[in-house]
UniProtKB/TrEMBL annotation:
Enzyme class: isomerase
The keyword Transcription regulation appears for this protein: no
Organism: Pedobacter vanadiisoli
Reactions that this protein is recorded to catalyse: uridine(38/39/40) in tRNA = pseudouridine(38/39/40) in tRNA
Protein known as: tRNA pseudouridine synthase A
Family from the record: Belongs to the tRNA pseudouridine synthase TruA family.
Amino acid sequence: MRYFFHIAYQGQHYNGWQKQPGAISVQDVIEKVLQQVFKQPIPVIGCGRTDAHVHASQFFFHADIEMEFDFDLLFRLNKALPQNIAVFDIIKMEGLPHARFDAVQRKYDYFIHTYKDPFLSNQSSFYLEPALDLHKMKSAVNLLPKYKDYRAFCTQPNKYEHTICNVMEADLFVNSKGDRIRFHIASNRFLSKMIRILMGKILKVGKGELSVDAFESLLINLQTPKTLDPAHPTGLYLSKVTYPYLNLEPRTDFIHSMQGVEWISV
């Protein structure tokens, strides 16, 4: 029987979702706990691959569990998992739906604060840039849904069959004081480090180091820039994953409850 698991995690202590030799990953921790519970290996397949230190306020993985069980699996997993990983729902699925390949939309949010705050250091990226031109940044962000090929915003474009991404939403928000920023983007797929590279270039636009026209030329000419300058991983959240047959609201309303911030579109 295939099950979908609806989870969230803080990623600052993990080398991303994907299991890999010599590093602690979210997938590795979850598989070890499942093995403890069922006394046999239970491989899991995630809805994507987040970078090292990136968070997920909504994430799905699937697992095939052949044996019948009559205990509260949700309770056992949450009791055994560390505090920075939570399981919200375990959903028995019909057939063999795939957590990664069946997803039709993924949403990410990237948070920035422009003043030093020790209580935000694990939640948001710190950039001491109090004079960012938010309107130019918004102009750059508004271009994203108009283009489909994101080859210029990828660390390894040649490893993909194609670099087409259907960006459905892109917006820039700011708090009332103008010292905290949220970049939001939704697409059917994302390339390696694509969002962090986009954020790095958008920050350059805000600092006056890259014009909006030059930013757009990257989308038009598809030339990989000499320096990619990806933004810091801390502050990036996978915040929503949608399937044709499953569309759950995130259990943790992190975006709107983040220390009472009211986000205003620039």
